[in-house]
Design brief:
Shape: elongated
Number of strands: 9
Largest sheet: 6 strands, antiparallel
CATH superfamily: Fimbrial-type adhesion domain
Order of helices and strands: HHEEEEEEEEE
Helix content: 10-25%
Length: 167
């Protein structure tokens, strides 16, 4: 190949044009994280009861080399903690043991549409502009009231976030 390129310099220019002139399409995602803060399991004057605790996070999608009107979906898998479906109700595990804390993530501010994997729960969908494009979407979290059997502690979980894009 080297001998060929030395004898045919126009072929080298053509090769350089094919390799350097076309960027590959691709996307990345990042999240601001979601923190709920304290969850009160007891209400006023020692009465059992509590209120929902809510929080909001931002998911950012950054793409390069995408044609106009490219689309993407964001799917969220089950929580690592808990048992059962783990999308309809997700769980946070307590580092000290005991019952897991129920929570969920939603695609709407009213917290009625569960964000899921497309089979259970809804996907987040978006469209990108041509070339490089950034998109941000809000995700809404809620810990429901009435979880009075929880031990004090630090609760956490992990889930898999999947970005699928169509250039």
């Amino acid at each position: 190949m080297t001998r060929f390129l030395k004898r045919h310099p126009a072929a080298m220019v053509l090769l350089a044009w094919f390799t350097a002139g076309h960027a590959h399409a691709g996307c990345t995602i990042s999240s601001s994280g979601l923190a709920f803060g304290a969850y009160p399991t007891l209400g006023f004057a020692g009465q059992l009861g509590s209120a929902d605790v809510t929080s909001t996070a931002t998911i950012s999608v950054a793409c390069q080399g995408m044609p106009a009107s490219s689309s993407y979906t964001l799917a969220l898998g089950p929580s690592a903690a808990g048992s059962g479906n783990r999308i309809s109700t997700r769980y946070l595990a307590n580092a000290r043991g005991g019952d897991p804390m129920a929570f969920n993530l939603f695609t709407d501010a009213n917290r009625t549409v569960v964000w899921g994997d497309g089979v259970t729960g809804a996907l987040i969908r978006g469209t990108l502009d041509a070339g490089g494009s950034n998109s941000s979407v809000a995700v809404y979290g809620k810990i429901p009231a009435g979880q009075s059997t929880l031990r004090a502690g630090s609760f956490q979980s992990s889930m898999t976030l999947t970005l699928t894009y169509s250039p």
